[in-house]
Amino acid sequence: MKFNYNRLKAERIARGLTVQEMADVLGISKGAYSKKENGKIALTVEDFSLISNKLGITREKMEIFFTEIVSEMETAKIS
Fold first, then answer.
1. How many CA atoms lie within 13 A of 35 on its CB side?
2. In this protein, which residues make up the domain named HTH cro/C1-type (predicted)?
3. Residue 27 maps to which CATH number?
4. d(CA 69, CA 27)
């Protein structure tokens, strides 16, 4: 499984939230949040919990942020 940072950004934007608002939720600077949202700084489980709460994402819907990594070999088998 791989975390989809693009989806995180899209969900924030869709809800009309700014980078600063999300940074405030985590108690960090705007720049630090931006780096987390872009995958340049690790996003902790605690961070993700606070972010998903702010976005209104329920536990059952959290899977939208994850994608399965499928190797090229596996993809070739499907074709």
1. 9
2. 8-62
3. 1.10.260.40
4. 32
pLDDT, residue 70, reads: 63
Q: Which of 56, 53, 50 is nearest to 15 (CA)?
A: 56
Query: How many domains is the chain built from?
Result: 1
> How many whole angstroms separate alpha carbon 54 and alpha carbon 40?
21
Please indicate, yes or no, whether the overall pTM of this predicted structure exceeds 0.85: no
What does the pLDDT look like over 9-62, one tens digit per residue?
Answer: 999 999 999 999 999 999 999 999 999 999 999 999 999 999 999 999 998 999
Please, what is the Cα angle at 40 between 38 and 45, to 5 degrees? Answer: 80
Provide the domain limits for residue 20.
Answer: 2-78
List, in sequence order, the alpha helices (H) in 1-79: 5-14, 19-26, 30-37, 45-55, 72-78
